[in-house]
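Design job #97: recover the sequence.
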């Protein structure tokens, strides 16, 4: 929670503090839990998108799941493009899925158990606005993280060219590349490293 405070990953709304999706994914990374989008689809009225996310431990155990929606019925999103609706629906679903295993940490630290992206009102402080900034406000990965991901992908492609490693990386990340956060990049790097170790182990066993 010290990281949440130092990086200002909470938003004050109506006098209460709510964690942003970056805060939830950071908590998840520190506790060995990550969330990924399972599917997205149009809502029943056709004016929005529904997304489903699942939260799992590093060994694959399911510890949380949630569905979330973003539609043009909401004033803020009434003129948004479909990709923007899908992005925010995915953001909300990821936050909700992570709340199941992590909510107690936030609540014990004095924060609300819901995510900032789910609250319809605007934040009190314009400097801490998250949803008002639209669907593209994640803390971007560092240059070092991006370089390490590219190196791992090249190594994996050389080790097993039969696998589409770019697609595998997107699956591991669970979010579009532009929504990848620093904590998400750390988790992706760990998963790609695990993939490489598994390939090396298989080659050694075969030899």
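Job complete. Output follows.
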């Amino acid at each position: 929670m010290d990281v949440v405070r130092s990086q200002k990953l909470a938003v004050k709304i109506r006098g209460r503090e709510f964690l942003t999706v970056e805060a939830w994914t950071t908590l998840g990374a520190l506790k060995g839990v990550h969330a990924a989008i399972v599917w997205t689809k149009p809502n029943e009225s056709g004016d929005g998108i529904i997304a489903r996310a699942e939260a799992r431990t590093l060994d694959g155990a399911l510890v949380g799941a949630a569905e979330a929606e973003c539609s043009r019925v909401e004033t803020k999103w009434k003129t948004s493009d479909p990709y923007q609706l899908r992005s925010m629906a995915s953001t909300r679903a990821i936050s909700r899925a992570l709340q199941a295993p992590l909510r107690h940490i936030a609540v014990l630290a004095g924060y609300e158990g819901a995510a900032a992206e789910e609250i319809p009102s605007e934040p009190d402080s314009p400097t801490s606005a998250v949803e008002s900034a639209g669907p593209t406000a994640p803390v971007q990965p560092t240059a070092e993280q991006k370089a390490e991901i590219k190196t791992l992908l090249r190594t994996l492609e050389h080790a097993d060219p039969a696998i589409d490693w770019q697609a595998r990386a997107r699956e591991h990340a669970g979010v579009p590349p532009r929504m990848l956060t620093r904590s998400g990049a750390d988790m992706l790097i760990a998963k790609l490293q695990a993939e490489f170790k598994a390939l090396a182990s298989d080659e050694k066993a075969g030899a």
